[in-house]
Design goal:
The structure is a homodimer of 81-residue chains. Chain A is built from 2 helices and 3 strands. Chain A has a 3-stranded antiparallel beta sheet. Chain A has one domain: Mth169, Chain: A. Chain A is α+β, with helices and mostly antiparallel strands. Chain A is elongated, with a radius of gyration of 16 Å. At the A-B interface, strand 1, helix 1, strand 2 and helix 2 of A face strand 1, helix 1, strand 2 and helix 2 of B.
Amino acid sequence: MRYTLKITITLKPGILDPEAHAIRHALTNLGFRTEDLKTARIFLITLDTPDEGEARAQAEKMCERLLANPVIHDHTVEVMG
Amino acid sequence: MRYTLKITITLKPGILDPEAHAIRHALTNLGFRTEDLKTARIFLITLDTPDEGEARAQAEKMCERLLANPVIHDHTVEVMG
């Protein structure tokens, strides 16, 4: 069966986010005042697996092997259906 | 009051996503079989505005001015609280 998984990659608390800093700076220059800005990446991955548990397990392995860097990133895996 | 808004930036349907293509290719090389892969970006922005409507309106303007390219991107704005 086909399952679509939403993988969210965020920076761990305390890890510097230069991209967020640059975007906040650019927004300020455009006249927008922001109190905070965080960035995250989403991967929507469709897998063909026998069951949902296997889809989730594969997505976790993909995070460990390629999508997330465990030193600086947190990740969550959500089954969308 | 402080509102945190979740801005999701996705590529419009039909727009090529070379990053997704590269990641899918890398996953294949690692032995993972994927049926589809899409990428998206999230910005979590905290604003101090008098009300939720104003926060949402400002976030929309930020998308138009900086965060999204209307030619290739779709965006959604969600008030998180």
